[in-house]
Amino acid sequence: MKINSSCLRSRRSSITRFFILLALVGRLCFPELSGDLRADEASNQTSPFAKSNLVAWCIVPFDAKQRSPAERAEMVQRLGLRRVAYDWRDEHVPTFEEEILQYKQRGIEYFAFWSWHDDLEALIKKHQIHPQIWITCPSPKAETQSARIAEAVAQLQPLVDKTRRLNLSLGLYNHGGWGGEPENLVAVCGQLRSQAEAEHVGIVYNFHHGHEHVADFAASLKLMLPYLLCLNINGMTDNQLVLEDAKRYKILPLGAGKYELGMLRAILESKYLGPIGILDHRDELDAEQSLSENLQGLKELLQQLGDQPALATF
Asked: Of 15, 20, 217, 254, which sits 20 to 30 A from 282 (CA to CA)?
C-alpha cells in the first residue's frame, strides 16, 4: 500500500504539535514538577556557577521594598533565578505558607530556611518540601577544644534530631566567633556524624562572615569540602576595612572587591559542584537591584575565569 508523503508529514506534524501542547499544559498545571527538571540539569552541570545552581539569599527582611510573597516570587522569576533560601523575622511568620505557594506556582525551589520555627513543620509535611535548615554553629566558652566541640554538639542535638526525623539537611552556618572557624565547623560536623547518626548535617559557608579566612581560603575550602551544603558568595575586600566600617565594606557586590576572583577560582579548582548563594543583605537597597548587581558582577568574573559552561547559562 502506498502512503502519501505529504499525508505522512502532516500526521508527524500533528503528533509533534500534540506533544508540545501536552508539555506546555503539564508545565502550566504542574509547576512543582520543575524541581525534577532542575535535578536533571544539576546532574549535567560542569560549573557550580551555572545560573540554575544559584540561590537567592537574604532577600526578605533586607529588601528595602519589603515585598509581599507574590512580589518576591515574581522578582526571583524575573531575574531568572530558581532557588531561594528563606530568611525571616517575626512579622513574616503569618505568610510562611503563602511564600511556599508562590514559589511552587512559579517553579521556584524553596531551597533553605533560616534557623527554625515550629510552624514550619506542618508546612513541610503539607507541601512536601525539604529545605535545608541553616543554623549558626554555637561558640561555647569551655576551656578546652574537646569540651567546646562536645558542648556545641549538645546544643545542636535537638535540632539534629528534628531535622533527621523530617528528612532535612541541617547546615551549620559560619557567623563569627569560634563556631565560624572552618576547622571548628568541620570538627563539630565530624563529631555529629560519627556519634549522633547525623550524616544529614553539613556546613553552609559564607564569604561575608569569613574575611579573616581570605588568605588561606583554598585550604579552608579543601577542609570543608566533604561537608559543604552551600557556599554563599559576595565581593570581598581587606578585613581591616571591614573592621573599620562593616556597613560599607562587609558585603560588596560580586566584582567590586579585591579577592573574590581568586576565591571563585579556588572553588572551580576544588571541583565543588554544590549550590552557590548570592545575597542581598543590604537593607538600604531594593533586593532586585542588589541581586542584579551580583549577577552582573558574577558574569564578569566568570568571563575573567574563562568559565564558559557557566557563562552559557546567563
From this structure: 217
